[in-house]
TrEMBL record:
This is Cadherin 16. InterPro entries: Cadherin, Cadherin-like_dom, Cadherin-like_sf, Cadherin_CS. Residues 56-131, 171-239, 246-352, 354-467, 468-570 form the Cadherin domain. The gene is CDH16. One of its GO terms (biological process) is cell migration.
């Protein structure tokens, strides 16, 4: 009979020990393991908070310091470093503690039981079970170690897992499972598992075996047997889902985090079967490239940017293998894929394809809006928003003579003329056009290619000379003598450069022209000319200083019949003056003073202006009667000077030309002509008059100064006399 106090002590110790000491961890290692080492066994239940300290592993007294076990401080896994032999040692009892440098225990000790499994215990690659004999000592059950069963064990069922025996007499056994499980016990005390176990469904069972007599009464407390379902590495790591590509900027520095792969393993947490390591399966770097584009942390699965340069627009497929069992042989693995897209940044400044443009010549009279040059710029960025450019003129265009025209999304810019050019103001223009990126630039600033120099040379334009008429006509009798003045060719702009005149295709040599004045004369008698014929020559005018610039006009000579010996005597018309602006008076032109034909009744004379268009434009001729005509100004304003107006007088078949000299001048209100007169003799000039006025003013000033000086001296003398010398006034 056991004393009651001993039972109380046993129960109290049983309640205290689980709290004072962590539960023992159990792990099995196959002997003569042929995989890679180190082999990760089980993850230790380290405290969740980060604690500075070192892991200390201790074991059996006969285990040397260079024993086959170690602890990975980074992951917290217990690992074996070499092959184990069951014949040499079947079990290892280990303890793991976390200690400070001075030996203070921060966590632990954590007991670990490592069981070396016999090679013959392997059945179809699954862990086998052990048979445990249980006996009764003094009517009590001997406590049993937990039974470890492999999940999905491929053996015939029911499968024997333990044997219990109660030696106290007739007995039959009753089994209860918490939670209910596929277990049973027979009359001989043999415990069975009736089907495969699945750790995902239930990882641990508590079996209670009760020994009862024939009356159903319990002999003692039930025997408790813990059955632990061992994890089988039957779940491959599951890759995380990445729906869309991961984007990183082009110039990301090495070490920049790209993503983190967190594969999931449904095997037992903390077991080697769920310990995942990662390995990058991407190909080696391209030939000539330095380093790798990406780096992978094998433990955390973190992907970072490597030291190889990245190019915008690249789409890189990263293949990462996630393997359980810490990557050891026999583990399962999955290949995870992540697409990384290298996004563009605005790190390229736009540049002109040609930064030095050859000089461009523009005539001085080029119209505003004329296209000067088209410049093209390029931008190496890929993003359309980073390729938008802005152009400007920075140098030598203060007056805004030139401007730029471009479309917002175009890489071409047109340089156009905005204002009229002047050779005298500037014979050349040097323009510096700069191109900038509209978006903010990242990285180095613009280089020398961001500017283009355009030199515009202004060509001086001298307009060709222009004559006052497009064509000229003159009527002359065939009997006109040599040296007779026919007409004068003049430029339309009297202030233009001097002209030099010449005649072209004067085949008969009848005419000549004065080179400077433009007067056309008969060079010789008009022999061979017939009345009614026309003779056409070409008059050419050239600038004296620019012989290449010229103008021409036709000159048509109409030949008239020579007057007969009985030609009438035309009355002499004295020189008269007419006022400009035009007033209501003119010049009376009379016919011949004596004409036998008129007396004979052969009809009157007719008067007409000469064929010169200028004469016909400036003058008006009106017949008064058969012998007189009235000449007036046709325009409101005619240039004030002496004019020679040719009048053609005709009678029957005979024609004469009468040259009327008229002075056109400005007039006063009385209609008298005002002419310029010279300076009267003896009259002072403006300069002399100013000198006389200034001299007179100076003389007056000197005279006034002398008077005031005299008065001042006299007053001072009176003040200097003594008082007694002043005569007293008599008082009456």
């Amino acid at each position: 009979m056991v004393p009651s106090w001993l039972w109380l002590l046993y129960l109290s110790v049983a309640q205290v020990l689980p709290e004072a000491q962590p539960a023992e961890l159990y792990v099995e290692v196959p002997e003569n393991y042929g995989g890679n080492f180190p082999l990760y066994l089980i993850k230790l239940p380290l405290p969740p908070e980060e604690t500075e300290g070192k892991m200390v592993l201790s074991g059996n007294p006969d285990m040397t310091a260079e024993g086959p076990f170690a602890v990975d401080a980074g992951s917290g896994f217990l690992l074996v470093t070499r092959v184990l032999d069951r014949e040499e040692q079947a079990e290892y009892r280990l303890q793991v503690t976390l200690e400070t440098e001075d030996g203070h225990v921060l966590w632990g000790p954590q007991p670990v039981l490592v069981h070396v499994k016999d090679e013959n215990d392997q059945a179809s690659g699954h862990q086998a079970t052990a048979t445990v004999d249980v006996s009764v000592v003094e009517n009590t059950w001997v406590p049993l170690d937990p039974v470890h069963l492999a999940e999905n064990l491929k053996v015939p069922y029911p499968h024997h897992i333990a044997q219990v025996h109660w030696s106290g007499g007739d007995v039959h056994y009753h089994l209860e499972s918490q939670p209910p499980g596929p277990f049973d016990v027979d009359a001989e005390g043999t415990l069975y598992v009736t089907k495969e176990l699945d750790r995902e469904s239930q990882a641990e069972y508590l079996l209670q075996v009760q020994a009862q007599n024939t009356r159903g009464e319990d002999y003692t407390e039930p025997l408790e047997l813990r059955v632990v379902v061992m994890d089988e590495n039957d779940n491959a790591p599951v890759c995380p889902l990445h729906g869309s590509p991961i984007s990183i900027p082009e110039l990301s520095p090495p070490g920049t985090k790209v993503t983190r792969l967190l594969a999931e393993d449904l095997d037992a947490p903390g077991s080697p079967n769920s310990y995942i390591v990662y390995r990058l399966l991407s190909s080696e770097p391209e030939e000539g490239a330095e380093g790798r584009a990406f780096k992978l942390d094998s433990t955390s699965g973190s992907v970072t940017v490597g030291d190889a340069p990245l190019q915008a627009g690249q789409s890189i497929l990263l293949q990462v293998m996630a393997a359980d069992l810490g990557g050891a042989e026999g583990g399962l693995s999955s290949t995870c894929e992540v697409t990384v897209t290298i996004t563009d940044i605005n790190d390229h400044a736009p540049e002109f394809t040609n930064s030095q443009i050859e000089p461009i010549s523009l005539p001085e009279d080029a119209e505003p809006g004329t296209l000067v040059a088209t410049l093209t710029a390029t931008d190496a960025d890929l993003e359309p928003a980073f390729r938008l450019m802005d152009f400007a003129i920075e140098v030598e265009d203060v007056e805004g003579t030139f401007g730029l025209d471009w479309e917002p999304d175009s890489s071409h810019v047109q340089l156009r003329l905005l204002k009229n050019l002047s050779y005298e103001a500037a014979s050349s223009h040097k323009l510096v056009v700069v191109v900038r990126s509209v978006a903010e630039l990242v990285g180095p600033g613009p280089g020398p290619g961001a500017t283009a120099t355009v030199t515009v040379l202004v060509e001086r334009v001298v307009p060709p000379p222009k004559l006052d008429q497009e064509s000229y006509e003159a009527s002359v009798p065939v009997s006109t003598p040599a040296g007779s003045l026919l007409l004068t060719i003049r430029p339309s702009d009297r202030m233009s450069s001097p002209l030099r005149f010449s005649l072209v295709n004067d085949s008969e040599g009848w005419l000549c022209i004065k080179e400077v004045s433009g007067e056309v004369h008969t060079a010789r008698p008009l022999q061979g000319a017939q009345p009614g014929d026309m003779y056409t020559v070409l008059v050419e005018a050239q600038y004296e200083d620019e012989p290449t610039l010229s103008a021409s006009a036709t000159l048509v000579i109409h030949f008239l019949k020579a007057p007969s010996s009985r030609a009438p005597t035309l009355n002499h018309v004295p020189t008269r003056h007419l006022c400009t602006p035009r007033q209501d008076h003119g010049v009376v032109i009379s016919g011949p003073s004596e004409d036998p034909d008129m007396a004979g009744g052969h009809g009157p004379y007719s008067f007409a202006l000469g064929p010169n268009p200028t004469v016909q434009r400036d003058w008006h001729l009106q017949a008064l009667n058969g012998s007189h005509a009235y000449l007036t100004l046709a325009l409101h304003w005619v240039e004030p000077r002496e004019h020679v107006v040719p009048i053609v007088v005709s009678h029957n078949a005979r024609m004469w030309q009468l040259l009327i000299r008229v002075i056109v001048c400005r007039c006063n209100v009385e209609g008298q002509c005002m002419r310029k007169v010279g300076r009267m003799k003896g009259m002072p000039t403006k300069l002399s008059a100013v000198g006389i006025l200034v001299g007179t003013l100076m003389a007056i000033g000197i005279f006034l100064i002398l008077i005031f000086t005299h008065l001042s001296l006299a007053r001072k003398k009176d003040l200097d006399q003594p008082v007694d010398s002043v005569p007293l006034k008599a008082v009456v």
